[in-house]
From TrEMBL, chains A, B:
Similarity comment: In the C-terminal section; belongs to the class-I pyridoxal-phosphate-dependent aminotransferase family.
Descriptive protein name: DNA-binding transcriptional MocR family regulator
Domain HTH gntR-type: start-end pairs: 9-77
InterPro entries named in the record: Aminotransferase_I/II_large (IPR004839), HTH_trans_reg/aminotransferase (IPR051446), PyrdxlP-dep_Trfase (IPR015424), PyrdxlP-dep_Trfase_major (IPR015421), PyrdxlP-dep_Trfase_small (IPR015422), Tscrpt_reg_HTH_GntR (IPR000524), WH-like_DNA-bd_sf (IPR036388), WH_DNA-bd_sf (IPR036390)
Gene Ontology molecular function: any one: DNA binding
Keywords, alphabetical: DNA-binding, Pyridoxal phosphate, Transcription, Transcription regulation
UniProt cross-references to SMART domains, sorted A to Z: HTH_GNTR
The organism of origin for this protein: Acidovorax soli
Domain of life: Bacteria
Pfam entry (one): GntR
Length: 497, 497
């Protein structure tokens, strides 16, 4: 059979992966008809049940859609009025490191945040944060109060060294195992969310002046961490279909002797929404092992993928401790809890030392709350409802963008998550839009904060965290009006081009 | 009058300060009779009520003791069987910076912690942490649960930028004002305890390779922070009576062009227990302003001073933002809450940026819990009971040391706090004691972890955090037995010396 053999994977998963990759790479374009069950059986020499299971897996992943009595079709995540986002050239030469670009990302972010704070924000489409009403606060509060009765001295016990509670460690290790990540409980270390973890990981594997490969575009928090630690970020093109470009990484390794680490968000890359295919994950882990690069995996959005159980973290392929695995419950369980955890792979001990030097022990109550919640049927129900609500909000957002934004706007609808990454018509500036919208009380995230290089002025991140309301609809209308105004003000030849 | 005039201070405070300093400097030795009320009136030209108030102030501070119908006497904190700790020469040349000594403190601390973890510890006299039963966990748990009802979305709200809640800011600013520290509420920043704060302060004011003046001996966490940030610690002698030596700091400034910051614990210095007199504080702040050094004040133990209200932080003398003020509730309210705060003085904005880059927002529930508790009559009652219990435990500890430890053991009883800093007889090693005691299930803190230079092998820190029990008494007996064993094994000429 033509499916590349992967050990440990059942046949139907191998088959599903094969077609998921074909879809991701565009070999099977959106709307295309999938091979029938009979065709799959003949072409790959598999049984009826394997072929059926593969198609159902693809359907759960959101890659294909069943049309009853007709067959399976590749899911069309694009709204027809919108063009698909342009893809970076994965083989384009890696951007040269330029000292000047590494100064100022913190100032830029701070300015953006500060402007947002000072303004009277009526509709916040800038923060990639789910609205509080999407979480199960009643259950959380009930468990939180129960824990205070059950562990009456949890707030006054001081010697919980090394700071991570065994119950939390056990629960996290058990959860990780369900997606193929095998971590010893005692090697689970509690963190203050994910930024803490990524910062510690960078501190453990680099020295001042070292180079860190980041995705481009990337979450601005990574750029802040790199800058505040006096490191240099090398921006590697990231496709909204498959994530970071391995070809560009190859070039980077050849040209950058001080390259030490790669930071990626493999599931629902922030901001472009990419979902890295399994084959790509396997190659990336092997690549980092071969070149002795620390692979820092920020797995904060996996549970927001429409079919998260089928997504295995990079860490699942890690046999040598090359992957530093970072998880947070900030986006899925309780943003106000500030609870995350990490496993530092072969740097775990050094990371523990750094963590202790920086912030000593972590609060135990929050760990117990996470341990008591994660993995329960109630939490699984919450996650299903939560993903459903976010899916609806994403779809509504896409409709609003299609209705209100000017011709030439392009986007790829991500298979889950909290936000849309939108490419504006040529010549239109998201920075101008940011300023104009803020004056109306609408906050957005302009593209330039997702890069050190000032790239992405033509891009915009919109949060889909807010449930739709007349005010949110009004905000999309106003954004559209402002964008149309920018298009009209463009020089004529620019518009024609 | 001979009292140096200090503006803003009432006359009786000036008078009390004058005598407190005389006591601290040894001009009035322990047990000496204070001038009578009449003598004070004549000598300083003050009224009866001013003289009386000054004596009462000194009594509240624990500097003098009233003997009814006899007069006031300088408090004798020493137990008569024990000698007073030797004082460092404040004018001794500052230790030369030696690269080798800056490697390894984290490894040494980690080893110490790890050995403590692996052993079956029956009695922990190593951690300077109050026993959980000394805290008011019932009140904390009640308020904690009430807050979950009152702020039902506190665990699921994500956008509390910049991470510090206004109610927390207001409560902390109000508390600070009571001890003379004027901080705008919006310039109160929540931290994960005090290590977080000191780390952020160091990161904000230094560059790699810069020099930081620390007290010697000092809390090992400071040395860990300095090492993990690739800075160099310069150890400045610290007296157990008056704290850091200004004379040695003067020398350091002259010889060390890369000196950027000074880290001090002005109240109950860890480990030597010093309480810095007001005049010393004023000089230190002026000194740092003159030489443009950041003065990082770790004010974690102030409320454990037997008369804490009279202790004004260094920050109270800071008119130019030279002092970075760090507070934690780890030792006074709830060790398991992990809540602290800081004001970064003129570096506050940079510190906020660093904090956001490292750990984003802080948990709000813990902030509300601290804000709701601190400053209430119930909390003041807790603190009074707490200080009383600690005082009793310190006194018992001193008695046990006097009873069991070999001749030649010396210590200064600190005017508050959690621990004793004990000088062992010449030739006796606290590292040897640590290993031997651990084998019996007794954990102590050996002197060498309080310095980069391997100094203080002849010193020992014992925690007084544990209420006395037969097991604690047993532990003191065993420590004494082990120390006597070491003394007996010393070469004869050493014992004679």
């Amino acid at each position: 059979m033509s499916v590349p053999s992967e050990e440990h994977l059942p046949l139907y998963r191998q088959l599903a992966d094969h077609y998921q990759q074909a879809v991701a790479q565009g070999a099977l374009p959106p709307g295309a008809r999938m091979p029938s069950v009979r065709e799959l059986m003949q072409r790959h020499g598999v049984s009826l049940s394997t072929a059926l299971q593969a198609l159902r897996t693809l359907e759960e992943q959101g890659s294909v859609q069943a049309r009853p009595r007709v067959g399976y079709f590749v899911q069309d995540h694009r709204v027809h009025l919108l063009g698909h986002s342009s893809e970076p050239d994965p083989r384009c030469p890696v951007q040269q490191i330029d000292g000047a670009q590494f100064a100022g990302i913190n100032e830029r972010i701070s300015l953006w945040l500060e402007q947002g704070r000072r303004a009277q924000v009526r509709v916040d489409l800038g923060a990639a944060m789910p609205a509080p009403e999407l979480f199960d606060h009643l259950t959380l509060n009930r468990i939180g109060a129960a824990l205070l009765r059950e562990f009456p001295d949890v707030l006054v016990l001081g010697n919980s060294r090394p700071g991570t509670h065994p119950l939390f460690q056990a629960a996290m290790a058990r959860q990780a195992l369900e997606v193929g990540v095998s971590v010893a409980p005692q090697e689970v270390m509690a963190t203050l969310g994910n930024s803490d973890a990524v910062n510690l990981a960078l501190a453990a594997v680099t020295e001042r002046g070292d180079v860190v490969a980041v995705e481009s575009p990337t979450f601005y928090g990574v750029l802040q961490a790199v800058e505040t630690q006096n490191l240099r970020a090398l921006e590697i093109p990231s496709s909204s279909r498959t994530g970071i470009s391995l070809e560009a990484l190859e070039l980077a390794v050849q040209n950058e002797p001080r390259l030490r680490a790669v930071v990626v968000v493999p599931h629902l890359q922030m901001p472009n929404g990419a979902l890295m295919p399994d084959s790509h994950k396997e190659r990336l882990v092997a690549f980092c092992r071969r070149h002795d690069l620390a692979l820092i995996e920020d797995d904060i959005y996996r549970e927001l993928v429409d079919a998260p159980v089928l997504q295995r973290p990079l860490k699942a392929w890690d046999e040598t401790g090359q992957v530093i695995y970072c998880v947070s419950f900030n986006k899925t369980l309780a943003p106000g809890l500030r609870q995350g955890w990490m496993n530092g792979g072969r740097w775990h001990e050094r990371i523990q030392i750094l963590k202790f030097a920086r912030t000593r022990n972590m609060q135990v109550w929050a760990q117990l709350l996470a341990a008591r919640t994660v993995g329960t049927p109630a939490h699984e129900r919450h996650l299903r409802r939560f993903r459903g609500a976010l899916r609806l909000q994403r779809e509504r957002s896409v409709q609003m963008v299609a209705r209100h934004f000017p011709q030439g706007t392009r986007l790829s609808v991500p298979p889950g998550g909290l936000s849309l990454w939108i490419e504006l018509p040529a010549g239109v500036s998201s920075m101008v839009l940011f300023e104009q919208a803020l004056a109306l009380g609408i906050r957005v995230a302009p593209g330039p904060i997702f890069s050190n290089s000032g790239r992405y002025e033509g891009f915009l991140r919109l949060s889909c965290g807010l449930p739709f309301s007349p005010e949110v609809e009004w905000a999309y209308g106003e954004l559209g009006r402002l964008l149309h105004g920018q298009v009209r003000a463009l020089p004529a030849q620019r518009q024609a081009a």
